[in-house]
Amino acid sequence: MNDIVFKELSYRINGICFKVHRDIGRFGREIQYADKLEDLFKGNEINFKREFEIKDLQNNKKTGNRPDFIIEDRILLDVKAKKFITKEDYYQMQRYLKSANIRLGMIVNFRNTYLKPKRVLNSKAKDNDIKRNKL
User: Fold this and answer.
1) Residue 11 structural domain
2) How many domains does the chain have?
3) For tag attachment on the chain, is the N or C end more exposed, with fewer CB atoms within 10 Å?
4) 72 Rama sector, left if φ>0, alpha if ψ -120 to 50, beta otherwise
5) Which NCBIfam families does the record associate with it (predicted)?
6) Distance CA 133, CA 126 (A)
7) Would 1 be classed as within a structural domain?
């Protein structure tokens, strides 16, 4: 059971995050990191949606949940620029994953000296339902 969810895509995202961290440093603002990520995603031909409001699958209503990036409709990316990641950040990501029915979320805190992207899994997501979700 050592399968990595969306291995290649998540490695590409990690590489881009490391480049952003190297270029901007650790004392930028969240918007600066997100803008640079957007530029690099476009340059690397990675499909994404930025700050897109997620619809709930059960009642097809908007939830108010807006992750920073939805990448290839498979990975949610939440950009942070603060001293440390809290439980609330994990709970927020779990809400995003549940309402979007996506298996993998990543929380990246650019304030750290050494970048350590955190992977959050949604074990209840169904692969076949992801394609039906018109985020």
Assistant:
1) 7-125
2) 1
3) N
4) left
5) GxxExxY (TIGR04256)
6) 11
7) no
d(CA 93, CA 107): 8
For residue 110, tell me if it sits in a domain.
yes
CATH of the domain at 86: 3.40.1350
Beta carbons of 23 and 36 less than 8 angstroms apart: yes
CA distances, 24 to each of 16, 21, 33, 50 (Å): 12, 5, 7, 20
What pLDDT shows up at residue 116? 94
Hey, what are 44's tokens?
């690397």
106 touches 76 (CB < 8 A) = yes
Q: Which long-range contacts (CB under 8 A, 24 or more apart) does 71-74 make?
A: 71/9, 71/13, 71/41, 71/46, 71/47, 72/9, 72/46, 72/47, 72/48, 73/47, 73/102, 73/130, 73/131, 73/133, 73/135, 74/6, 74/9, 74/102, 74/103, 74/104, 74/130
pLDDT at 125: 82
- Over the stretch 46-85, which tens digit does the pLDDT of each residue have? 999 999 888 766 666 666 788 999 999 999 999 999 999 9
